Amino acid sequence: MAESIVSFAVAKLGDLIAQEIVFLQEVGDQLRSLHHKLQWMQAFLKDADGSIKGGNERAKLWVNQVRDAAYDAKDIIDTYIYKIHQQRRRSCTLTNCITSTSQLTILHELGNQIAKVKRRAEEISANRSKYGIESFAGTSSNISIVTTTTMSFNRKQNQLDVEEADVVGFDKHVKTLVKLLIIPEDQAGPHDQRLAVISIVGMGGLGKSTLAKKVCSNPDVKRHFTCQALVYVSQVFRTREILERIAKCAMAMSEEKMKALSQDKLKEKICEYLKGRRYLVVLDDVWTRDAWDRIKDVLPEETNGSRVLLTTRNADVGEHADRQSPLFKLQNLGEDESWDLFCKKAIHPTNSMDKCPSHLESIGKEMVAKCGGLPLAIVVLGGLVWRKEQTVVEWLKILKSLKWQLREGEDQISPILELSYHHLPYYLKPCFLYFAIYPEDIIIDPSSIIPLWIAEGFVQARDDETLEEVAEDYLQELVHRSMIQVAREENIFPGESYQIHDLILDLSIFLAKVENFLHVPKNSGEENILRKTRRLALNGNKMSSYIAAGKYSTNSSLSLHTVTCMDMKVRTSEMVRFLHDMKLLRVLNLQGTGIKKLPSDIGKLIHLRYLGLVETEIKTLPSSIAELTNLQTLMLGTSIFALPHGIWKMGNNLRHLKRFIISIMGTPSVESLPNLQTLSYVKVGPWLLNGLGKMTSLRTLGLLKVIDTYVEPLLDCLGKLDNLNDLFWWAADGSIIPSSILSTPQSHHRRHLQPQEVCLDGRIERLPESNLMNFCITRLTLRDSRLEEDPLVTLGKLGNLQFLRLYDAFVGEEMICLERGFPQLKQLVLENLDSLKRWNIEDQAMPKLRHLSLHGCYKLVMLPDDLERITSLQEFTVERMPDSFNQRLRVDEGEDWGKIRHIPFVTIR
Questions:
Q1: Which residues contact 332 (CB under 8 A, 6 or more apart)?
Q2: CB 648 within 8 A of CB 670
């Protein structure tokens, strides 16, 4: 971790010396000397990275001192650049950009500060030899030095393939819980019919959530309960979100209808709906009695066998919820189950064998025994071992390095998780710690975390790849190391999202504080930020009082480089005052704060790389926004409808501009935003004629309300965007989307437009001939296309297509998946196909399909006969389908049950 921080300071010094040499007359030699000193420290720390972690307190102290010195050097440099910029703003003329007096004053102050840091650096360097610290880098008494080469994953092909390892040994638990939930009517007495709460209790990482999900997917449970709802509660408890989740799962209530109801009205609607129905509500991860007390009022006390399944780490919560029902205390895995889970995660499959090689078995079992049967610990350890060579030498190194300090409760997992962190290569450590900015149980979009990493300087350039592509590999590597997980959301959308387990999030928060990397206050009463923290994360409304009360010191605010706020409402004046002295900000994320305006002098934050204004009430941006020439990412809220003319002057650094339905004013210059990679979603207008074709770095483009008069010029511009990967085209009412977007152009006058991810919203007269289709497409969404010819016949020939969503895209009565069609398709969504009556699947079609969803196809009579042959199917979701169709899917009884009985997860709403 320290190596990464020193790298930032070294890089900043190098840039400063190269770019500002004209102003460095008196301090240039001092800067170069400090630069060289930090380079030596950087090299030493990089060699020792991973070995410092052992019990060498002298080494830890030395590393902390190096880190603080590097931090201070970086602050001095950033402050210098800021002051120079401010002087230029105040004093700039055509002939003189800064007065000599001001220059000498700033240089004199800079020289004194550099001299102090340089003396500290020399003293720290001398202490390494003086106190014998240099010896630890060359020994292996605690843990071997980790050298890891970044893996270059095939992002596009593997995104839908990453699956979470299943916890083994839960079958017997499922059977027990099913018996507790379902009491046969002929055996049930009055007591058994009451609303009972069954609580699964156990420490974090035992798999309580996984077990609850398995119980919900049990066919007997699905048949017994009229409606079900699965709700994540967590420590950060929001009553409104819980109610909306219940309404969505149990009642299939739309987002629009939920938003239109007050909290009391929503609660009333849920109660009315559940009355008279036999329901099952699963409350996952309940931490406090208060959480249960605030939810229980919405659950009517029916005497029909309704149940609540609750998971918690606190037995007191379960007893409080229902003192008449015994707690189900989840125990650790047994020896055989632990070993099976470890092998699933750690062993590289060779041919058809995925068993542990015999010569490694004894070492592996000794490692697994240290996990104490804790599934999360076993999975994390398995992810660590998976990254190593399967040799006795490598496995013995891991075994010897495990300083397991097994204690009661959750402390068992800390050494395992911390070991995994210390085994991360240096470039992944700050990326992992950065997850500490997020609240619990949040779904993390890669398009959110990746720009933040880049803005912070965590992502290293690699060959000809973009920083975003390198960062995507970082995410995949963290997944493979079991530090984060691929999220499995019920909502259907293309692409991956991620989440981090509560315990691993706790670890990231703890280590971020220890490393003085990032501070996450636990409550609003916490004292001032200590030790000149560089990053501050405030989550939830409770933290709004932290800002209002000014819980920060002047020194701390001056050193802050990052401020992220999520889901908290604050007054605009309080936020402006809070940010007043923060001159060195690189990242400012005000998501969910609801503030109404930015400071008029926001342009003075010349170091700013990331500005997040999602879920604010800001309607206009100050003109000084154009002065943020280092800004890389601008995330706008929905209240901003137009960008000022100055957007075209923001220079070469802007990479991502995101907002839904926005207009761009003004005329682009010749070199407007040449490095812009994301532009979404913007209204088509005159700006595109002179601007879009010049944005040759664009990879993601979202265009809204495209009218016919702009179609041809737009196609001409798109033909110049060789790097375009993701295209969203929303046609204006009455306009037609040209089918050529989906084809490979044959004309030599226009370059090939071959995006891999395409979403088209609007009327399409017909699809191109199959031999002319763009075979590079991996994800395709067609919405309101109103095609008259069966789209599956043509689309089935796209050899790389992995995701397909058809929403009101076909007006015919019959569709067919031809023989061997859709060879790579993994997810298919058929939605609002109002006229569809028959759907057929021919032999060997969709051999890799994993997720199938049918929504609102009201006239569809039955499922295709050959669906039962698709053995790859893992999930099948049916929603808003007629009762006659749903009756055919009844367990063991329905005419179509045999076609879906092989699918593990079937959901019918």
A1: 206, 338, 372, 373, 374
A2: no
Tell me the percentage of the chain whose pLDDT exceeds 90: 28
**CA distances to 2, 10, 70, 78, 125 from 74, in Å:** 13, 8, 6, 6, 18
Number of H helices, E strands in the chain: 30, 26
Rounded Cα distance, 828 and 876, in Å: 10
CATH number among 3.80.10.10, 3.90.1150.10, 2.60.40.10, 2.60.40.420, domain 519-637: 3.80.10.10
Cα gap 232→9, rounded to integer Å: 42
Q: Residue 333 phi/psi, 5° resolution?
A: -65, 150
- Over residues 413-457, the pLDDT tens digits come to 666 677 778 778 888 999 999 999 998 878 898 989 999 999 998
* Model pLDDT for residues 21-67, shown as the tens digit of each residue: 555 556 667 777 777 777 777 777 666 554 554 446 777 777 777 77
Span 171-329 CATH architecture: 3-Layer(aba) Sandwich (3.40)
Confidence band, pLDDT 50/70/90 cuts, at residue 241: confident
Cα separation of 890 and 898, whole Å? 10
Least confidently predicted of 84-98, 245-259, 774-788: 84-98
563-566-569-572 Cα dihedral, nearest 10 degrees: 30
Assigned token pair, 156: 């596009």
Cα(92)–Cα(88) distance, integer angstroms: 5
| Centroid of chain to Cα 860 | 36
Question: In 3-state terms, what secondary structure has residue 736?
Answer: strand
pLDDT band at residue 459 under the 50/70/90 scheme: very high
| Residue 869: HSE in the Cβ half-sphere, 13 Å Cα cutoff | 13
Q: Given this model, what pLDDT does residue 748 score?
A: 41
Q: Distance between CA 613 and CA 634 in Å, rounded?
A: 8
Assess whether pLDDT exceeds 90 at residue 632: yes
Q: Which of 70-74, 167-171, 536-540, 614-618 has the lowest mean pLDDT?
A: 167-171
CA distance 23 to 360: 62
| HEC-encoded secondary structure of 473-531 | HHHHHHHHCCCCEECCCCCCCCCCCEECCHHHHHHHHHHHHHCCCCECCCCCCCCCCCC
Contact, 765 vs 735, CB < 8 A? no
Find the Cα–Cα–Cα–Cα dihedral 112, 117, 119, 123, rounded to 10°.
170
Nearest-5° Cα angle at 99, 95 to 104: 140
Residue 733 main-chain phi, psi, to 5 deg: -55, 130
> For the ranges 304-308, 354-358, 826-830, which has the lowest average pLDDT?
354-358
Determine the pLDDT at residue 147. 29
Q: Determine the distance from the C-alpha atom of residue 759 to the mean position of all C-alpha atoms in its chain, rounded to a whole number.
A: 21
Bridge partners (DSSP) of residue 635 are: 612, 658
Contact partners, residue 488, CB within 8 Å, separation at least 6:
164
Q: With contact defined as beta carbons under 8 Å apart, do 643 and 626 qualify?
A: no
- Top CATH class, 2-138: mainly alpha
Mean pLDDT (the chain) is 80
pLDDT at 906: 86
Count the Cβ atoms, other than its own, within 10 Å of residue 96.
9
Measure the CA–CA gap between 654 and 444, rounded to whole angstroms.
22
Q: What does the pLDDT read at residue 163? A: 37
Cβ atoms 54, 142 nearer than 8 A: yes
When mean pLDDT is compared across 34-38, 537-541, 628-632, 735-739, the lowest value belongs to 34-38
Q: In 3D, which of 442, 437, 498, 491 has the Cα closest to residue 471? A: 498
- Going from N- to C-terminal start, the domains of the chain cover 2-138, 155-166+333-442+449-486+503-509, 171-329, 519-637, 781-909
Q: Give 97's contacts (C-beta < 8 A, 6+ positions apart).
A: 88, 91
